[in-house]
Specification:
Signal peptide: 1-20
Largest sheet: 9 strands, antiparallel
Structural class: alpha+beta
Keywords: Signal
Number of helices: 2
Distance between the termini: 59 Å
Number of domains: 1
Helix content: 10-25%
CATH class: Mainly Beta
CATH architecture: Beta Barrel
Protein name: DUF306 domain-containing protein
Organism: Negadavirga shengliensis
CATH topology: Lipocalin
Order of helices and strands: HEEEEEEHEEE
Length: 142
């Protein structure tokens, strides 16, 4: 009798655990960035400051497994990036498509944060580029 009761409790516990939707499965650390577009939600200057939300629609596009583009206020940039499964992320080259006047201070600071990024993290919703601060990006679904 005690054995049957113990088995029932174990089965109920396993069933409850398997059906628990609120259980945190942990972060999804790697994502294939190629052929994806991400809108900048904001960035953090350093690890102990607040998120500076984006007031404009800046979109970072990973064209393939090495080429990216980003449109700022007036200028468009493109370059070569590297991304690995262990989270490593690095901008190898960056070039301005053409000089068209001026980008805002926010856009220039954002571009600097992208250049300083050393690794990335994906939690299933937000892509974060980390380095000297953080950039938070949301996937653009078209």
């Amino acid at each position: 009798m005690l054995r049957k009761l113990l088995c029932v409790y174990l089965l109920m516990g396993m069933l409850f655990y398997a059906c628990d939707e609120d259980r945190d499965e942990g972060p999804v650390s790697h994502i294939d960035l190629s052929r994806s577009r991400w809108q900048v939600q904001g960035f953090v200057e350093s690890h102990d400051s607040e998120l500076l939300s984006s007031r404009s629609k800046y979109v970072l596009e990973f064209v393939n497994d090495s080429l990216f583009t980003i449109n700022l206020d007036a200028n468009r940039y493109f370059g070569i990036y590297e991304s690995e499964e262990n989270g490593y992320f690095k901008i190898r080259t960056l070039q301005k498509k053409e000089e068209i006047c001026c980008d805002s201070q926010y856009a220039n600071a954002l571009l600097q944060k992208i250049l300083e990024a050393g690794y990335h993290h994906y939690n299933g919703e937000t892509l974060t580029l980390n380095g000297n601060g953080e950039i938070h990006l949301g996937r653009v679904i078209e």
